[in-house]
Fold this protein.
Amino acid sequence: MRGSAITLAAVLGGAALLAVLNLATGPASSVHVSSFVIGLTGKYLCYAILALAVDLVWGYAGILTLGHAAFFALGGYAMGMYLMREIGARGVYANARIPDFMVFLGWKELPWYWHGFSHFPVALIAAMVVPAILAGVFGWLAFRSRVSGVYLSIITQALTYALMLAFFRNEMGFGGNNGMTDFKDILGLPIGRDSTTVGLMLVTALVLAGAYVASRALVGSRYGKVLVAVRDAESRTRFLGYRPEHYKLVVWVFSAVLAGIAGALYVPQVGIINPSEFAPANSIEAVIWVAVGGRGTLSGAILGAVLVNLGKTWLTGALPEIWLFALGGLFIFVTLFLPRGLIGLLPRRRRAGPIAEESPAAASAAREATG
């Protein structure tokens, strides 16, 4: 519990401090934090929620996902649809009742699946429900068929790649290659205003804290103990009378919902959503964040997401041509020399630990879960 309190304090305290330094100090002040930095911090916090979602399924269920960018992007598109509807008559085609890109492509009417997205609650619910439905259907089919290991990883990568190709098509009604951008406001508040930028960052920090608490409660429960047993020794757990596919499906869907929420928070802070968010490389990056921070620790996933993206921001500005080599080298270094990630360098603490096939502890964990 001490580690959880420290993590929450770091997230909320850091966000609050940045907000104060932005709003309470003038641009000429030496301690002033620009709105650019605030927006960048909000973006990192969205990535941290995505990393948390990946760590739940990889660190605690042993599911190496290479497709979580799909859930993240779907949540982003749901929020993007709401933000496009918020533009209203302020678009290029002021008299149009449909988004500008639809007018440009020759659409006459708003597609049926866009109806309702002029209301924020609809977009927020869609950002969670759509990823949950996709994850539920995919997970039920995959886990029921006992697909696992590298085969499951490849299938998840194929899923996000297929969605990327689909969203590139203009006839899908989501902006095609260009996606959605030029957002004006959210809930009536101008997106470009400093106070709105700070507010979005603070909301993201609160959501991250809530996601962390919920995830910690999940993995610390009886269900979480069985989940670790499934990760370490699925066959033994099955022989004890459990249905591993059910445990995997629950955490898989919950993880997809977290990723969808992260995507919904991400879009108003970066100002654009397009099919590139589905790219498999984004899912692979998320896995690297978790590996660098510390797989199976939750707080390590948050740390890895923030630190790796800080490095990316600096390197892509200073030496853009070496960023991908640096990222690959970092992953190799962590795999070889820091199997527990950066969080493993801290004093010993309770953590899920690496996967150990057919670990005797798995059966013990399963028995403990039954009381």
User: Anything to note?
Assistant: The longest helix spans residues 194-220.
